[in-house]
Amino acid sequence: MNDTILHVQDIYKSFDGNGVLRGVSMEIREGEVVVIVGPSGCGKSTLLRCINGLEVIDSGSIYLRDEKISGRTKDLHLVRQKIGMVFQSYDLFPHMKVMDNLLLGPTKALNKSKTEVEKEALEMLERVGLKEKAYALPRTLSGGQKQRVALVRAMLMRPEILLLDEITAALDPEMVSEVLNVVIDLARGGMTMAIVTHEMRFAEAVADRVVFLEDGMIMEEGKPEEFFSAPKTQRAQHFLQSFTYASKRDKKSDKNNFED
Ligand SMILES: Nc1ncnc2c1ncn2[C@@H]1O[C@H](COP(=O)(O)OP(=O)(O)OP(=O)(O)O)[C@@H](O)[C@H]1O
Ligand SMILES: [Mg+2]
């Protein structure tokens, strides 16, 4: 049986003549967590944005299960429903309570009943430690809390795959682990994910496979234990060395428990 959820096949994308993705191919299997790392500007966000159709690719193809999703215009919204995405900035509607933010997608796009979704939303909020915030306005929440709500909102759409683009990059350090622990939890629950992060210890903890992207090409990929302890290419070695300072600093104020 073919358990491939996502198949990216030789995709190219350029902006104003600059090749940003230059022949990227990868597959993600059901339940697999793939972490994409690489230097700033190497094309990580562009890759995720191409996968969920926010950017149109120049060539190549993208399949979700057996369905070709690239090159479509008509029913793109149906495809997007199956691909959840959470960004650095939690884009909750500020004038709507947390619950109304959560209800919007499933009731409008999936035609689910409000009662059903509300029940499910409360269960999920409880799991991420936010049940008491269900009827609060987003501005009364911390960044870490908002980002956990954003994860719940994405999950309520029951996506086939979840794409996370640096979801902790805008957070104060003490809020990072509370968000990453939710992601670890989702991974343990079997959620298929493609994650872009600069949190290398988290990457090591959550990844089934690490993909190292540079200049729009996959330079190396492998199991996290191999990639982080013995990267094969010099470029990956060099990239990982640049995190030495950050990881020492992390240890000094270590509140993270996502490695347990
Ligand atoms: N809409 C756009 N128009 C023009 N150039 C773009 C656009 N989006 C991205 N780029 C360029 O494409 C390259 C890759 O950008 P991308 O955001 O994918 O990098 P990244 O790997 O996510 O970097 P970072 O780690 O800093 O988030 C950059 O040079 C960027 O300036
Ligand atoms: Mg980016």
Structure description:
Residues 252-256 have low confidence and may be disordered. Helix 3 (98-108) crosses helix 4 and helix 3 (98-108) runs parallel beside helix 5. The chain has one domain (4-252): P-loop containing nucleotide triphosphate hydrolases (Rossmann fold), CATH 3.40.50.300. The protein has helices at residues 44-51, 76-82, 98-108, 114-127, 143-156, 173-188, 200-206, 224-229, 234-241, 244-252; strands at residues 4-15, 18-29, 33-37, 59-64, 67-68, 83-86, 161-165, 193-196, 209-214, 217-222. The protein is of the alpha/beta class. Helix content is 38%, strand content 24%. It binds adenosine-5'-triphosphate and magnesium ion.
- The CATH architecture is 3-Layer(aba) Sandwich
- According to DSSP, the number of beta strands is 10
Bound molecules: adenosine-5'-triphosphate, magnesium ion
CATH topology assignment: Rossmann fold
| CATH H-tier superfamily | P-loop containing nucleotide triphosphate hydrolases
- Distance N to C terminus: 33 Å
- How much β-strand is present in the residues? 15-25%
Helix share bin:
25-40%
Could you give a short account of the major beta sheet?
6 strands, mixed
Low-pLDDT runs:
252-256
* Neighbour order of strands in the largest sheet: 6-7-8-3-9-10
Radius of gyration over all CA atoms, rounded: 18 Å
Structural class: alpha/beta
Number of domains: 1
